[in-house]
Amino acid sequence: MRVFVFLAAMLCGLSSFAAGRCDVAAPIETADLGDVRLAYQSVGRARDPALLLVMGLGGQLIHWPDEVVERLCRQGFRVIRFDNRDVGLSTWAHRPAAPNLTYEVLRYRLGIGVTAPYRLRDMASDALGLMDDLGIQRFHVLGASMGGMIAQHLADLSPERVLSLTLIMTSSGAQGLPAPSPALLQLLARREADSREQAIEQQADLLAALGSPAVSDDRGQLLEQARLSYDRAFNPEGVQRQLLAILAEPSRVELLNRLRVPTLVVHGTADPLLPVMHGVHVAAHIRGSELRLIPGLAHRFQEAFKEPLLAVVLPYLAAHRQTVGVAQL
To answer: Residues of the signal sequence (predicted)?
Structure first.
């Protein structure tokens, strides 16, 4: 009986310890990388394998759901999420997005070069600089949407440092892949607002359009998400500059063909922004990659798809985490 009580107490203590080390309320810190200062949060122990989360267009680090970050940390990772340049609490470029964003989108559709103040590869260099600042030599990377595009560059820039790559709802940028509807692109590029209330309504409209038709969104929850984003940081010109970085990007097929990093590609069958063939195409060009399609998933982290996503991502990361050693409790 005493042994049983001791083991129970030890297990409870370990559970509490795990909860403490996976505190998603850890402070937001900054890394000064020279021209760019990045806001980031580190959740977990410094000695655990690092997992870098790279967010998509206009997304802030708070758009990685806290529960997902905690689940990843409990898997034994030190989870690092950050604001890309031009969003959130990181450096804003303070330069005009473009003379005319509509004109640049037209140039993109015609296959003419797009002018952008920086490129996705520059944003990948930002991420590498953050890991340098933290003293982390090797790490895992999980990128979503534009973050998946940045992650592709990151793995190409420094393949010896990237232990595994998880790419969610992203693209190769190749010509000929299915395009989003013009209406959705307009919502994505629409950033002018006369008031906080109008900006929040617009963001809620965009979130709804990026969601799955199989899920009925609660408008109040969408508005609350939009309020949190707006009140933390609202930089519409920065989002336009990020969009230009995407549009200015040539096809990454050659880059993908030379990657030799263990890679998982996850895509939804109902993605309205990057239809499912984008994910299929990415996986087809990364040697040895695994492709997992999630029925009904669109282009947002919706509650209904949280468990299906984690059921795919967690085992993959766990398997590759073990290749570099199991962290000690």
So the answer is: 1-18
Query: CA 87, CA 190: separation in Å to the nearest integer?
Result: 16
- Bridge-based pairing state of the strands 37-43 and 29-32: antiparallel
CATH for 28-179+236-320? Answer: 3.40.50.1820
Beta strand pairing status for 50-54 and 162-168?
unpaired
For the entire predicted model, the pTM comes to: 0.90
CB-count burial class (<10 Å; 0-12, 13-18, 19+) for 76: buried
171: left (phi over 0), alpha (psi -120 to 50) or beta: beta
C-alpha 60 chain-centroid distance: 9
Please list the pLDDT of the chain residue by residue as tens digits (329 residues): 544 433 443 444 444 445 578 999 999 999 999 999 999 999 999 999 999 999 999 999 999 999 999 999 999 999 999 999 999 999 998 765 555 666 666 666 666 677 889 999 999 999 999 999 999 999 999 999 999 999 999 999 999 999 999 999 999 999 999 988 778 877 877 767 889 999 999 999 999 999 999 999 999 999 999 999 999 999 988 998 999 999 999 999 999 999 999 999 999 999 999 999 999 999 999 999 999 999 999 999 999 999 999 999 999 999 998 665 433 33
CA distance 296 to 215: 9
What residues contact residue 51 under an 8 Å CB cut-off, 6+ apart? Answer: 72, 77, 78, 79, 80, 139, 140, 141, 142, 317
Sheet holding 263-268: strands in order across?
29-32, 37-43, 78-82, 50-54, 139-144, 162-168, 263-268, 290-294
Which 3 state secondary structure label does DSSP give 261? coil
CA distance to 180, 253, 292, per residue, from 278 (Å): 11, 12, 13
